[in-house]
Amino acid sequence: MIEMKRNIKRFFMTKRGLLLLAGITALFSSCEKMPDEYPPEPQLYYTTKLKHHIKLSDTAAFARIELRFTDGDGNIARDASSLTNEIYLRDSRDTVTSRDYTHALPMPYIDASQRPKKGGLEGRITLNLRRQFFPLDSLHSALGGDTMYWHIYIKDEANNKSNWIQTDTIYISL
User: Fold this and answer.
1) Strand 52-55 and strand 170-173: pairing?
2) Angstrom distance (rounded) from CA 98 to CA 150
3) Measured in whole angstroms, how far is the alpha carbon of residue 6 from the centre of its chain?
4) pLDDT in tens, 77-98
5) What is residue 159's DSSP assignment?
6) What DSSP string describes 22-86?
7) CB-based contact 36:70 (threshold 8 Å)
8) Is-contact 155 70, C-beta < 8 A?
9) Which fold has domain 43-173?
10) First to last CA, the chain
11) What is the pLDDT of residues 115-130, one digit of tens each?
12) Euclidean distance between CA atoms 151 and 164, whole angstroms
C-alpha cells in the first residue's frame, strides 16, 4: 500500500512537472516579439480619454489631444531641421477654407536612436491646443459658447496621407 502511494505521488509529480515545463515553454514562445508590419501610409488613432471644456476667459485653458500613429516605411519626422507641416487639423465649424485643413503643424522630430532598425514606426503625439485654436464668431460670442471637434490627419515625407480621425466634442464657453 505504501509503495502504491509512492508510485501515484511520483506519477502526479512527473505530470505536474511536465505541465509546468510545457506552460513555461508556451509562455516564453508567446512573448517573442515579431516585427510589426504596417501599410506605407501613416495610420492615425485617437486615444484621448478626457472630456474637453475650453473656458476662453481662462488664459491657461487648453485641450489635450492624444494620438497614436503607425507608418510602415518609417519616413515620417526624420529631419530635425525641417519645419515641414505634417499634422493637419480641420475645425468642424470651418465651412469657408478651401483647403482640407484649418491649421498645419510640424511633426516632432524622432531621433534615429528611437526608430526600429527594420519594420514600421509607431509613436504617440500629444497636441496641447491653447484657447487661440478655439475662436468664437460674433453669434456664438453673444450666445456664450459653442461646440466643435477636430478632424485630424498626418502626412509622411512621401506625401502619403493618413486616415482622418475625429476628436470628441469640445465645449467652448466664455
Assistant:
1) parallel
2) 16
3) 58
4) 877 777 777 999 999 999 888 8
5) -
6) HHHHHHHHHTPPPPP---SS-EEEE-----EEEETT-TT-EEEEEEEEEETT--SS--TT---EE
7) yes
8) no
9) Immunoglobulin-like (2.60.40)
10) 87
11) 777 778 888 999 999 9
12) 6
Which residue carries 485643413 as its cell?
Answer: 101
With contact defined as beta carbons under 8 Å apart, do 114 and 136 qualify? no
Domains of the chain, by residue range, sit at 1-32, 43-173
Spatial separation of the C-alpha atoms in residues 2 and 172, rounded to whole Å: 81
Q: Is the pLDDT of residue 139 over 70?
A: yes
Q: What is the pTM of this model?
A: 0.74
pLDDT tier at 11, thresholds 50, 70, 90: very low
88 conformational bin, left if phi > 0, alpha if psi -120 to 50, beta if neither: beta
% of the chain with per-residue pLDDT over 90:
46
Q: Sheet harboring 165-166: ordered strands across?
A: 103-106, 85-91, 150-154, 165-166
The angle at the Cα of 16, spanning 13 to 21, to the nearest 5 degrees, equals 125
Structure confidence at residue 102 as a pLDDT band (50, 70, 90): very high
